Amino acid sequence: MPASRSPTAATSRRVLVVGSGGREHAIAWKLSRDGAEVLVAPGNAGTAAVAENVSIAANDIPALVKLALSRQIDLTVVGPEAPLVAGIVDAFEAAGLRIFGPTAKAAQLEGSKLFCKQIMHRGDVPTAMFREFRGVARAREYLQAREDMPVVVKADGLAAGKGVFVCDDRAAALAALDSLGGDEQFAAATKGILIEERLDGIEVSVMAITDGRTIVTLPPLQDHKAAHDGDSGPNTGGMGAYCPAPFVDAAMLADIEARILVPTAHAMRRAKVPFHGVLYAGLMLTAQGPKVLEFNARFGDPECEALMIRLESSLLELFDAAVDRRLDMVEPPRWRAGASVTVVMASEGYPGAVQRGRAIRGLDAAARVPDVEVFHAATRAADGSVLSDGGRVLAVTAVGPSLARAKLQAYSAVKEIRWLGAWCRKDISDKGLAHEREQLAAEAAAVGAVGEPAEPAVEKPA
Ligand code: AMP
Ligand code: GLY
Fold first, then answer.
1. Ligand approaching nearest to the C-alpha of 130
2. Which of 167, 294, 295 should be mutated for ligand 1, with most atoms under 8 A from CB?
3. Residue 189 C-alpha to ligand 2 middle, in angstroms?
4. Of ligand 2's atoms, which has the minimum distance to the CA of residue 302?
5. Distance CA 14, CA 284 (A)
6. In the listed set 77, 100, 123, which residue is the last one of a domain according to the structure?
7. Probe ligand 1: pick from 130, 166, 283, max atoms within 8 Å of CB?
8. Any idea what the CATH number is for the domain that residue 356 is in?
9. CB of 128 closer than 6 A to ligand 1?
10. Domain containing 22 — which CATH number?
11. What pTM, to 2 d.p., does this model score?
């Protein structure tokens, strides 16, 4: 491998961010605040305000390598999983370019659910029990033979969020197998099928930045994967997030790091596929403790937006240290006190087919709401206006001294924004707020049980 380019002076750092969503806008926004000159490929109307957009698709790896060489990029950061699984990190490293993210082999932690289970087994990482089947027919026989109970049916490979079915009973699981078997588009992803025990509990996301040895755990978040309020409706890429998720206290976060993140990084190294980049654990907080639902090999979206707005110290420094394998040398990141909330505004029809090209109004007014950043998830600029360009269009993000305040600011900004067919969930962060209220009530009850503080004893004059 040719020697890597070493970074130039901090003032002239040129960084390339690969992707076009809200996550990439938030990363580009933060890197530009850290003093970097940022390019985004391909980017969107929002990234154009903080960076230079270059119109190269996120999966056009040869063109991205060429760009990085010709523009003397000294660090590349990859947002989405597809280019990681396709080997963008391998290609950049072979060209002597510095890049933050896992190799194609390591990205199999997200790209193959079976590989992920094998790594967890090696690391003794808590996860749902499962059986693996070659093809739909075998899986069907198994379901018919075993007791009728809730299960989760999963396609082994990447299936754009359409490969997981949480089923209440055998009939639902058989129907899930039918739809997987009938889907030509995901034929490759469904060669392997996993049938998993269904876990119950609260879902949280915990991400860490790692150089393969050292793990920097980031604050816990909660995503909202269902399309509609009260977690109803179809599964989506994520309709909103907030940070921190109060269900995970400092002790539980330390436990997640020690029993899940560290053993996973070690198991990857022992399997000769060291993991560099963002290790994202999708967790279920079960009665038996946190268990892994899935690993992703990148920042979550919209979790990333809710994280970036709270990050006070340098993101660039963290990425550099991870790429140079010296994460053990950097100070832990500093986070703004309080909380953040991201509300995704989506197009009519999402997560199904959507109309694009609708003019978005009110972005300036939204940007004037204090403590708010409107990250763009799928937009493009045309003749001085901003048009919708996909399903999840904006990730309206606010920070505040409390979760309630951050929610209020985020929805105040949402109210300013309009386009034909725009919608969002109205209950982002409500589970966290309810948990906070319960905790307060429990504390008040505990004080009540102890009784009123006693009157101070009056000292008698001698
Ligand atoms: P995955 O792509 O594996 O994260 O699955 C997508 C979603 O399906 C998760 O975010 C969970 O909501 C749900 N899920 C996956 N596996 C399980 C499980 N074993 N038990 C309950 N829910 C699950
Ligand atoms: N928000 C979930 C994900 O990025 O996978």
1. 1
2. 294
3. 18
4. 1
5. 39
6. 100
7. 166
8. 3.90.600.10
9. yes
10. 3.40.50.20
11. 0.92
Question: Is-contact 392 237, C-beta < 8 A?
Answer: yes
Residue closest to 190 by CA, chosen among 151, 144, 138, 225: 138
In a domain, 169, yes or no: yes
The reply to whether 221 falls in a domain is no
Tokens of 381: 């600029």
Of 222, 296, 343, 428, which is best to mutate to test ligand 2, by the most ligand atoms within 8 angstroms of its C-beta?
Answer: 296
Same domain? 35 vs 93:
yes
Distance (Å) from CA 111 to ligand 1 centroid: 15
The length of the chain is: 462
300 falls within a domain: no
Q: Establish if 360 belongs to a structural domain.
A: yes
Q: Is 81 in the pocket of ligand 2 (CB under 6 A)?
A: no
222 lines ligand 2 (CB under 6 A): no
- State the distance between the two ends of the chain, measured CA to CA, in whole angstroms: 88
Strands 289-296 and 277-286: antiparallel
Same domain, 63 and 156: no
Same-domain status, 44 and 96: yes
In the block, which residue shows the tokens 């924004």? 417
Ligand nearest to C-alpha 296: 2
Ligand 1 near 151 CB (within 6 A): no
Report the b/e string of 92-127 with b at 16+ CB within 10 A.
bbebebbbbbbbbbbbbbbbbbbbbbebbeebebbb
What is the Å distance from ligand 1's center to 165 Cα? 8
Provide the domain count of the chain. Answer: 3
In 3-state terms, what secondary structure has residue 315? helix
* pLDDT per residue of the chain (462 residues) written in tens, 0 to 9: 444 444 544 457 999 999 999 999 999 999 999 999 999 999 999 999 999 999 999 999 999 999 999 999 999 999 999 999 999 999 999 999 999 999 999 999 999 989 999 999 999 999 999 999 988 888 999 999 988 999 999 888 776 666 788 999 999 999 999 888 776 666 666 678 999 999 999 999 999 999 999 999 999 999 999 999 999 998 899 999 999 999 999 999 999 999 999 999 999 999 999 999 999 999 999 999 999 999 999 999 999 999 999 999 999 999 999 999 999 999 999 999 999 999 999 999 999 999 999 999 999 999 999 999 999 999 999 988 999 999 999 999 999 999 999 999 999 999 999 999 999 999 999 999 999 999 999 989 988 876 666 666 666 665
Range of the domain at 393: 339-442
